[in-house]
Amino acid sequence: MTFAEIKQIAVDHGVRVVGVKKVDIVRSIQQKEGNTPCFASGKVSECGQSHCLWVAACD
What we know:
Blueprint: H1 3-12, H2 22-32, H3 44-47
Helix pairs in contact: 1-2
């Protein structure tokens, strides 16, 4: 997914994107979607959120 696509998803969820890092944008989107904001935290094996939009891109 491109950064432009991520920003559009963020805008659709009402998440601020100007001057915000990608990781923080994705974590804000995760919160809005009712998920734990754990993107790129190294806890992919612990999160158990297989329904999360970001699980494939998570570290």
